[in-house]
Amino acid sequence: MLGRILVMAAMIAATSVGMARCASRTAGDDTGQSTVKSVDDGGWSQRGGSGWSSASARKTGSGAVQLGRSGDSHFYADTRVDGASIKMMVDTGASIVALTRRDAEAIGIDVDGLPVVGTARTAGGEVPMRVVMLNSVEIGGIEVRGVQAAVIDADMGVSLLGQSFLSKLDAVNVEGDMMTLR
Predict the structure, then answer these.
(1) DSSP state of 41
(2) Which candidate, 6, 12, 34, 37, places its Cα nearest to that of 164?
(3) Are 169 and 161 in contact (CB under 8 A)?
(4) Contact 89, 19 (CB under 8 A)
(5) Which residues, 6 or more positions from 74, have their beta carbon under 8 angstroms from its beta carbon?
(6) What is the dihedral of CA 135, 120, 40, 35, to 10 degrees?
(7) How many CA atoms are closer than 13 Å to the CA of 106, on its beta-carbon side?
(8) pLDDT tens digits, residue range 87-124?
(9) Is 98 within 8 Å of 160 (Cβ atoms)?
(10) Residues in Cβ contact with 178 at an 8 Å cutoff, skipping those fewer than 6 apart
């Protein structure tokens, strides 16, 4: 009986931590140290990137940017990465910004010239991953400089806006169908 109670308590705690992480993320715990071994693409290589659309980012009077939830229940952002326009899915569970090969090449990154530093787990298996430092990532007037990213050699369908960007913001909040970035 005690064993069942402990297992149930552990499951509740894990669920609560996961939900809290998705609901709100505040800055201040970024140590500046980042070691990347793998990135999960959230199954994009299996789903493909078609059939989704993003609501436009809306800047509020307080300097925050609001993103509306898309029809597939995700949040998408039209970003400027090193001067190039890239549509990204906001992924609070991704530890790093993950770029598709197509988006990395659009920015001007020589993907084949980057060393392979690990692998990324995708629905299609493990694929090579290369790490790069982005000069700038901007959404609706919020700019973060020096953002670590991984280039994933898989058909993810869309690049992911992960914690290497999000953790540098003051807050990431989700209320209903609206995500607010500050």
Answers:
(1) -
(2) 34
(3) no
(4) no
(5) 52, 89, 90
(6) -50
(7) 14
(8) 999 999 999 999 999 999 999 999 999 999 999 887 77
(9) yes
(10) 66, 67, 68, 69
The share of the chain scoring above pLDDT 70, in percent, equals 66
| Tokens, residue 164 | 């290497």
Cβ atoms 178, 66 nearer than 8 A: yes
Per-residue pLDDT of 128-161, as tens digits, reads 999 999 999 999 999 999 999 999 988 789 999 9
Label residues 73-91 b or e (16+ Cβ within 10 Å = b).
ebbbbbbebbeeebbbbbb
Report all structural domains of the chain as residue ranges with CATH numbers, in order of start. 2-181 (2.40.70.10)
